[in-house]
Amino acid sequence: MRILSGIQPSGALHLGNYFGMMNRMINYQQNNELFCFLVNYHALTSVFDAALLRKQTFDAACDFLALGLDPDKSVFWVQGDVPEVTELTWMLSNITGMGLLERSHSYKDKTAKGIPASHGLFSYPVLMAADILLYGADKIPVGKDQKQHLEIARDVAIRFNNTYGETFVVPEADIEEDFATVPGLDGQKMSKSYGNTIEIFADEKTLRKKVMGIKTDSTPVDEPKPIEGNVLYDLYTLFLDEKGKTALKERFLTPGLRYGDIKKELFEVIRDYFAPYKKERDALVRDKQYVLDTMQKGALKARQAATVYLERARHNVGLDYQN
Ligand code: TYM
């Protein structure tokens, strides 16, 4: 099975990214053909500072490698290193109906949050469809916020196949119920643009401050605490197995629990969970050339896989006038 997913280098990666996508991708690499990439073309829709984009792309590469993405086993690259994807985007653009894009929630949400209403932002889902179709991917692990984008990618693949004959694999979203929407500090979806994130590689002081700032209700200490919609509970369970979850639930339902104590505990859990990866990450940051070489090798492998589908698409639409 070919599994593919991408992430925008548009800020430090957070627990939502980690549980919704990164950790799941890394687990998949054991038994599947994994394609994982950093979508810097997509990031151009919201990052307008070249030095910042370079830094964030490099940082995200270090994050993935530190977390265990194996560049020999998997294909790991930077989207912009395989510019063929923009050629496919153009082909797809011409069979993508305006109505399909006009219904995009993500475009409406992003412009409402102040991201410029550019043509790039509007056609973002077409570039994303190209990302997926160019590599013949079957399954796309994402968080719930990408569900509509995946539906658009499927529609585009089906429309293309119907118009020009069988060309692309029709991909499927892979959303895991437990990690579909990781909440942020304020209870909304954790997102860079809401400013409610917990970064996976935050320094200790920042991490402590963020965790202590998780929104809690005002249930008195001597009463049972609600579980439903409790951000602190939901964030803690991300790090627990079934047995651990049952035990935590018991504690919340037993009068006397102090939210402050749980926050301190959760801070330690997060810090300890990421500590070994952080060490690895620090080493990678110091070895810039290794990271750059790794990304170049990844781009070569990605380009090889892309050629198959790009050539097929060029032929099926008739761009190969020589034939
Ligand atoms: P991006 O960069 O916003 O997020 C990367 C991944 O993290 C997931 N995610 C979450 N999951 C659960 N809870 C959250 N709070 C949370 N926040 C983020 C996202 O769902 C996503 O899976 N358009 C994509 C990038 C992309 C892509 C692709 C993905 C471009 N081309 C091709 C798959 C296939 C995006 O902006 O993700």
Task: Lay out the secondary structure.
Blueprint: E1 2-7, H1 15-28, E2 33-38, H2 40-43, H3 50-67, E3 75-78, H4 84-93, H5 98-102, H6 105-112, H7 119-122, H8 124-133, E4 139-141, H9 147-164, E5 172-174, H10 204-212, H11 231-237, H12 242-253, H13 259-286, H14 288-317
Parallel strand pairs: 1-2, 2-3, 4-5
Helix pairs in contact: 3-13, 4-8, 4-14, 8-9, 10-13
This protein binds tryptophanyl-5'AMP.
Describe the model.
The strands form two sheets. Strands 1-2-3 form a three-stranded parallel sheet. The model has no long low-confidence stretch (mean pLDDT 97). The chain folds into two domains: 2-181 and 288-317, HUPs (Rossmann fold, 3-Layer(aba) Sandwich), CATH 3.40.50.620; 201-282, Tyrosyl-Transfer RNA Synthetase. Helix content is 55%, strand content 7%. It is globular. Helix 4 packs across helix 8 (124-133) and helix 8 packs across helix 9 (147-164). Strand 4, helix 9 and strand 5 form a beta-alpha-beta unit. It is mainly alpha-helical. Tryptophanyl-5'AMP (TYM) binds at residues 5-8, 16-17, 20-21, 39, 42, 128, 131-132, 140, 142-143, 145-146, 149, 179, 181-182, 189-191. A motif ('HIGH' region) lies at residues 9-17. Catalyzes the attachment of tryptophan to tRNA(Trp). Homodimer. Belongs to the class-I aminoacyl-tRNA synthetase family. It comes from Sporotomaculum syntrophicum.
